[in-house]
């Protein structure tokens, strides 16, 4: 019985480290204004344009160009930078059903 209790504890601790350690990254400075991009023609009727955005990488902002993706179920909610008390946080874009 003791072995089962130890096993359960080990699994719980490992689960915490594997799934519960997504640390929020706070960026101390606001992102630059978005770059103007020329949107190329859609590759097909089921394509959705994802706007480019600034990404925080190695202590500086780096531009990620916009691109076309295959439409999923629902509506695309664009990613955005959110101002928080400790700095700026990137909120990832996602599909909303």
Description of the structure:
With 97 residues, the protein is an alpha+beta fold. It has one domain (2-96). The chain has one helix and eight strands, in the order H-E-E-E-E-E-E-E-E. It has one helix spanning 2-19, and strands at 47-50, 53-57, 60-64, 67-70, 75-77, 80-84, 87-91, 94-96. The strands form four sheets. It has a two-stranded antiparallel sheet. It has a two-stranded antiparallel ribbon with strand order 2-3. A two-stranded antiparallel ribbon has the order 5-8. Strand 2 (53-57) and strand 3 form a beta hairpin. The termini are far apart.
Secondary structure: elements and pairs:
Elements: H1 2-19, E1 47-50, E2 53-57, E3 60-64, E4 67-70, E5 75-77, E6 80-84, E7 87-91, E8 94-96
Shape: flat
Major sheet size, sense and barrel closure:
2 strands, antiparallel
Roughly what is the average pLDDT, rounded to an integer?
85
Instruction: Report the span from N to C terminus.
Output: 46 Å
The domain count comes to 1
Percentage of residues in helical conformation: 10-25%
**How much beta, percentage-wise?**
35-45%
Number of helices, where a helix is a run of at least 4 consecutive DSSP H or I residues: 1
Stretches where pLDDT falls below 50 for ≥5 residues?
8-19
Structure class: alpha+beta
SSE topology string: HEEEEEEEE
Radius of gyration: 20 Å
Q: Give the strand line-up of the largest sheet.
A: 1-4
How many beta-strand runs? 8
């Amino acid at each position: 019985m003791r072995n089962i209790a130890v096993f359960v504890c080990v699994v719980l601790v490992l689960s915490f480290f594997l799934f519960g350690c997504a640390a929020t990254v706070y960026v101390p400075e606001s992102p630059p204004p978005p770059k103007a991009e020329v949107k190329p023609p859609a590759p097909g009727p089921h394509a959705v344009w994802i706007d480019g955005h600034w990404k925080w990488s190695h202590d500086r902002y780096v531009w990620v160009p916009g691109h076309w993706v295959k439409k999923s179920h629902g509506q695309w909610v664009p990613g955005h930078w959110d101002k928080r008390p400790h700095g700026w946080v990137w909120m990832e874009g996602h599909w909303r059903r």
